[in-house]
Structure formats: C-alpha cells, structure tokens
C-alpha cells in the first residue's frame, strides 16, 4: 500500500481572506515563496480578539512541512484563545531595505511578508509534544537539542503546543526603487535604497555558564534559515 502523502498544490488558494487587494501585483500565493519567508523569519505577530479587545502578540514559531507550530504557557491568553477555536491572523515581515524618494510621500520600504489564517489543532500526548519542542529548539539553532536538557514532565504539563495547518496563506513583496514620475527627480537630492540584512553579532558568554566551553561553530557562524 502506498503511504506517501500527495504533494501539496504549488499555490495556496486565493481566498477572500488572504487575497491581496492593495497593490495586488505585489501579492503571491506561491507555496515555495511563502515557505522561504517563513523559514527565514523568526518572530510572528498574532492578532486575535480577547474579551472584546483586539490584541497583537509577538511570538516565535516553527514550520514543519505544511504546519506552523506555536507554543506557550497553558495559562497564557494567547494559547487559551487560539485553542478555543477563535479566529486569528498570523503575520511575518522581513525588512529588506528603506526606499528613499525625491518626495516626502514617496518614501517606502522593501519587504517580504506573509499572512496566514486558519484554525489551531492542540498537540496531545507526551511524544508528540516532545517532538514539537525539539523542532522549536532546532529552529533556533540546528543541532542544539543534543546539547541541552530536555523539558521536564512539569515543564511539559505547563506548556501548550498548537499546530496551524497551512491552508490559507499569501505573501506580499516589495522591491526596487521609489515609484515617482521622472520629473520629480530633476534637481533632487540623493535617492535610492538602503539595504537591510539581519546579521548576528559577536556571541556574548553567559557568566553563569561553563567558562571553558568554546563558542560552538554553528553559533559563531550563525545564519538563517537554519
């Protein structure tokens, strides 16, 4: 019997909730592009309604195949709300550059962003939760799980893990220079793009740690995606 799962469609469906309506030429539903943005970014913002109040919470995540995984305290408002089946939106944005225009209103930014909508699934069972926690640590730094103490039973009981099947998602990307009429550039000051790139700094040793432990090569040469 063939147990291989069928490959997901190349594009996400163009739903009313994820359709890019402002500057639609910048929108994309390409799965490979969306996954590449999600895999390079590190923090997402989750918007939801709690007690009638709009809330936005930043948190980290990990993509495993066609699902995003979230985790947090079982007592947190975010986890309680999302696990209840309430609607939410996830956004990830990577800043690629600041765009300098000859006009005040023409300034902009180059970016890659993803919006995800859907419903959560609660990850139950010790083995499934432990596997998800391993994915979180490995997303921070590949190979790190083998170097740290795994979660205790008490820590696992206090942690909720949620999966978000990637069903509705879209990307929006801006690149290039300012969008101005050519006459605006006559006699203007400098215009162009200042590129931005997320790069790690020099590792800082925790004074409580082992002073003889060398900085691992995968920390000293850290890159994203992992």
Summarize the structure in words.
The radius of gyration is 21 Å and the shape is globular. The protein is α+β, with helices and mostly antiparallel strands and 226 residues long. It is built from 5 helices and 11 strands, in the order βαββββαβββααβββα. Strands 1, 2, 3, 6, 7, 10 and 11 form a 7-stranded antiparallel beta sheet that branches.
H/E series, N to C?
A: EHEEEEHEEEHHEEEH
Largest beta-sheet details:
7 strands, antiparallel
**Given the C-alpha coordinates, what overall shape results?**
globular
Share in helix: 10-25%
The total beta strand count reads 11
Rg measurement, Å: 21 Å
- Give the averaged pLDDT, no decimals: 93
Instruction: Give unreliable regions as ranges.
Output: none
- Give the class from helix and strand content and strand pairing: alpha+beta
- End-to-end Cα distance, whole Å, is 34 Å
How many H/I helices?
Answer: 5
- Provide the β-strand percentage band: 25-35%
Describe this protein with a few key phrases.
226 residues; 7-stranded antiparallel beta sheet; 4-stranded antiparallel beta sheet; 5 helices; 11 strands
Give a short overview:
The chain is an alpha+beta fold and 226 residues long. Helices cover 18% and strands 31% of the residues. It is built from 5 helices and 11 strands, in the order βαββββαβββααβββα.
